[in-house]
Design a protein that fits this description.
- It is rod-shaped, with a radius of gyration of 26 Å.
- By secondary structure, the chain is mostly helical.
- It is built from 4 helices and no strands.
Length: 155
């Protein structure tokens, strides 16, 4: 396995851990965010949005690699791999291994992108729920009728 593949594996594990930690904090956190928590969530959402935007070309390329392997590379290799093993055709087997590693690396890139998108969506949901909770929990002083309103006669 090459270094790029190892790096992709480490990145996806890190991203999944971050998403898991974020979800756990949400499940155990308060109904309303403090200003500090809100700022952290907004900053995290902005960072994830930036990462998503920056990685868009890589995600598109990874998707194309995955589709090419699934549609053409895998069927071709599967049709020949038995003969390559029997004949000990190292170069063909090595090329297949390189192609499968490239495919796996592309899938890991897609998984990392999905984890980034998930983290962004979770933070967006947290902020939206916090907005709804704040609106619901705030006293509605302005909603009371004015003192001279007919419903307040005799008070």
């Amino acid at each position: 396995m090459d270094d790029e593949f190892r790096l992709r594996c480490a990145e996806i594990r890190l991203r999944l851990h971050e998403v898991d930690r974020t979800i756990e904090q949400i499940q155990t956190g308060p109904l309303d965010l403090t200003d500090t928590d809100r700022k952290r969530a907004e900053d995290g959402m902005d960072r994830m949005g930036d990462l998503i935007a920056v990685s868009l070309k890589g995600v598109t390329a990874a998707r194309a690699k995955v589709e090419a392997w699934v549609d053409h590379g895998r069927p071709s290799a599967e049709a020949n791999v038995s003969d390559w093993k029997t004949d000990e055709r190292f170069l063909d087997l090595n090329a297949r291994a390189d192609d499968v590693e490239a495919y796996a690396s592309a899938v890991l890139e897609l998984a990392a992108a999905a984890a980034r998108e998930c983290a962004h969506a979770v933070l967006e949901a947290v902020l939206a729920r916090s907005d709804a909770n704040r609106a619901c929990l705030r006293p509605k002083v302005a909603a009371l009728p004015p003192r001279d309103h007919p419903t307040n006669e005799g008070i």
